[in-house]
Structures are given as structure tokens and as C-alpha cells.
Design brief:
The protein is an all-beta fold and 116 residues long. 0% of the residues lie in helices and 53% in strands.
């Protein structure tokens, strides 16, 4: 499975961005799609995940500001980011975890910069 992420960019504090990630093929079986981010000098961290059944999980730092969603017909996952802060600046990676084979697939990353 190949993942193609898009939607990053430069935005002012308080602004919004929407990230998209499309998988190259249909993903069958139970799976979890998600977004992670890595800031300079820091470890990659979970931002949000959404399971094939629809349940979601968010990092405390983004709760109430970010919303994850998915479109199974388009093999895609999205991250709506509102009220962005400078500390949200990072490279954002999309991920698919396929439960049956316990395998992870990663997109190439998209840069999000929040700065005035």
C-alpha cells in the first residue's frame, strides 16, 4: 500500500489547514488510519487515528481543534486542523495499520508550518 499525503503549508496562528492522504488501493479487513507528526529534534508522535469502524483517538494537545475523518470509498483519511498554534509546526505523516497482518504503511510526509 502506498500513501500520498497532501495539504500542508504555511499558515498564521489561529488559521486552518486540511490534510488529505490517499491509499493506492483498497484496504481490506480491520485497519486503523491515522496521522502522526514529527517536529525538529523531537520524536514522531501520534496526532489522531480513526479505525475502520469509525472510532477515533486524539492526542490531548489537539483535542477540540483537530478532526480526523475517513472516506472508505476513496481509501482516504483527512485531518481538519483548526486554531493552529506554532507548536503544531511539524512534518505530518499519514499511516495505515492493518490489523490482520500487524503491518504499518507510511506516507511521505507533508510540512505544516504555523508562523506569523
Amino acid at each position: 500500500v502506498q500513501l500520498q499525503a497532501s495539504g500542508g503549508g504555511l499558515v498564521q496562528p489561529g488559521g486552518s489547514l486540511r490534510l488529505s492522504c490517499a491509499a493506492s488501493r483498497s484496504i481490506f479487513g480491520g485497519n486503523v488510519m491515522g496521522w502522526y507528526r514529527q517536529a525538529p529534534g523531537k520524536q514522531r508522535e501520534l496526532v489522531a487515528t480513526i479505525a475502520s469502524g469509525g472510532s477515533t483517538k486524539y492526542a490531548d494537545s489537539v483535542k477540540g481543534r483537530f478532526t480526523i475523518s475517513r472516506d472508505n470509498a476513496k481509501n482516504s483519511v483527512y485531518l481538519q486542523m483548526n486554531s493552529l498554534k506554532p507548536e503544531d509546526t511539524a512534518v505530518y505523516y499519514c499511516n495505515v495499520h492493518i490489523l490482520l497482518v500487524d503491518s504499518d504503511y507510511w506516507g511521505q510526509g507533508t510540512q505544516v508550518t504555523v508562523s506569523s
